[in-house]
Records
---
Amino acid sequence: MQTTYLMAGVLAILTGIAHSVLGEILIFRHLRENGVVPSQPAPPLRERHVRIIWASWHLVSVFGWAFAGMLLAIASGADDLRTIAVNAIVASHLGGSALVLVGTRGRHPGWIALLAVAALVRFA
């Protein structure tokens, strides 16, 4: 076990959690009427803008967790870095696609691009 990579991986996980939780508490809870995705406009931003900002905010955490997964795999002594990277890329892009799809009710095309990246990498 490589302690430095392990510590970095755990720190990346905790950073992602803090980023998402604090964003929800400090920013998005004021814009949420009900449900998970905020739906209240924040002038000059309209509802659709708030929704994509919410998805993008959490996308940062998802991508950070993908890197954390890579670090934890490396810390455990995994040697196949290609497989580790492919799995992290696919998982993060699938998660990101789901966030944008749900967050924007499918109205932002970013979810299609993220899903396409995940599919291309998985089936390469």
---
Amino acid sequence: MRKLLEQLKLRHAAAAANAYPSSERVCAFYSSLVNWLFPEHTGKVMDAVQLEQHVAALEEQLRGLLASMEGQLPRDAAATSALFMEQIPGIYDNLVKDAEAILQGDPAATCLYEVIRAYPGFYAIAAYRIAHALHTLDVPLLPRVITEFAHARTGIDIHPGAQIAPYFCIDHGTGIVIGETTVIGPHVKLYQGVTLGALSIDKSMAMAKRHPTIEEHVVIYAGATILGGDTIIGHHSIIGGNVWLIKSTAPHSRIYYKADGSIKVV
């Protein structure tokens, strides 16, 4: 026990030196932002004055999160917060497009309100888009805390470094994994259990493109696994359920497993 206590003293001292804000504070900021953009989440609405006041409150909230991390930021907390706030209109526009894509892509969806209020795919995409904006500003840790918060809640794992165009549709979603260097074009639809991952590589190649590129208007069905930074799925393709791919496909491809277990390319 004495040895453990000595180890814990060092660990706690290191944690104090890092001075990152608590995960609870980070997730509270995310929830406050999402609920402001989409009151459907809580049913709590704001009048015009409250909406404007909340802008300042959100910026102050983020600035407070970043203040203890200034030594790890490329600019001060106030400048970083201001740059993030400038991205919010674009984040909102993309999320509305994502919600529309989910509504059009899922026959069971009855209206946008239902998609925004109840669909785990939309919630995970919202977390990703907010986290990605922070990621592009070189904010450490916080983007990952936000996406992992959504991961724990939805079972959908999207790295904040991925590049995902609008009109992104996730149907069901449980078990989806989207890696850090994945690139996804507009009007892409993923079903549950899809992995857009990396082949096993040496840690020294961590900065290389390790994950696939999915071009526009692609549908990937449940359980499909697509791996590798050189793998490109051509536009307007359909990837069938449980297919395993480590090679690129031409545009307009249809790829699925035959009854004998072989892959059929159309």
